Amino acid sequence: ACVGAPSTVEGQDARGMQQLAREAWRQLRTGAEDSIEAEVQDMATYEALAEVQQAACEALVRMAQSVEDYKHKAREAGAIEAVVSAMSRHPQDAQVQQAACEALRHTVCRAEVSQECAREAGAIEAAVSAMSRHADDVRVQQAACEALAAIVS
Known about the structure:
Number of helices: 9
Helix content: over 70%
Structural class: mainly alpha
Radius of gyration: 16 Å
CATH class: Mainly Alpha
Number of domains: 1
Oligomer: single chain
Shape: globular
Largest sheet: none
Strand content: under 5%
CATH architecture: Alpha Horseshoe
CATH superfamily: Leucine-rich Repeat Variant
Number of strands: 0
C-alpha cells in the first residue's frame, strides 16, 4: 500500500460521511425558500458534493426567471464565482457543467458588470474546459456555447 493512501475502511468512512452530508443538505433544503444567498451559501458549504452544486445552479436558473433585479443580486451574492468554482471542482460531472453553464448564461446575459465579473472569475476558461472534457455531450456543448455568447456579447 502507498504511504498516506487511505485504507479501504477509511474510504468507506469517507463515502459514508458524504452520504450523511448529502442527506443533511436535503433535509435542510426541504421546504426552504430559495434565495440567491442561500444557494451561494450551500455551494460554499457543500462544495465537494456535485449533487448540491448541480441543484444550486438549477435553482439559480429558476430564480433568474422570477427574481426582480436577479443579475445584480446574483453578482452581489457571489453567485458567479460560486458557479465557476463548482465547474472547477467537478470537471468530470457533465450535469454540473451543464447546470453551471446555464446559470452563467442567465446571470450575465446583457449585464455588462456581470459579464466583466464572469470574465474575471474565469468563466470563459471554465466553459471552454467543459466543452473540451464533454465533447460528446450535446447538452454541455449547447449550454457552454450559450454561456460563452452571454459572457462576450
